[in-house]
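Fill in residues.
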């Protein structure tokens, strides 16, 4: 660390490179075929703000959709199991994404990766 650097009491988060082209997009395509409303998501986060599971865990549907679209599927299986399928997210989504079916289709598609 630069000894001359002024300490402000916080650190800058390290950047994370995403090799988009090298990632596996087959799961995202499969989910979009089964639930086309995936393509309507604008990552607004309204679903996460009202999510029942997010009140008790670090679960975020917005983040799951982002990771899925980036082809970063490694952590998705564990994350998606936290969803209680209560459907609150579907009631508030401004883009009418069919979130419950989306979650089910993501789970289903992931079983093809880890049967
Ligand atoms: S509320 Fe709907 S549009 Fe917004 S992030 Fe969630 S799924 Fe996407
Ligand atoms: S269905 Fe799942 S993602 Fe949607 S609000 Fe309920 S727990 Fe959260």
């Amino acid at each position: 660390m630069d000894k001359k650097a002024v300490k402000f009491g916080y650190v800058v988060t390290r950047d994370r490179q995403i090799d988009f082209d090298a990632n596996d997009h087959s799961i995202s395509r499969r989910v979009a075929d089964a639930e086309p409303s995936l393509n309507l998501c604008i990552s607004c986060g309204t679903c996460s703000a009202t999510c029942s599971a997010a009140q008790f865990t670090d679960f975020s549907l917005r983040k799951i959709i982002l990771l899925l679209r980036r082809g970063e599927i490694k952590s998705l299986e564990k994350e998606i199991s936290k969803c209680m399928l209560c459907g609150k997210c579907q009631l508030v989504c401004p883009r009418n994404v069919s979130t419950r079916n989306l979650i089910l289709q993501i789970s289903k598609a992931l079983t093809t990766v880890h049967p």
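The chain has a mean pLDDT of 91.
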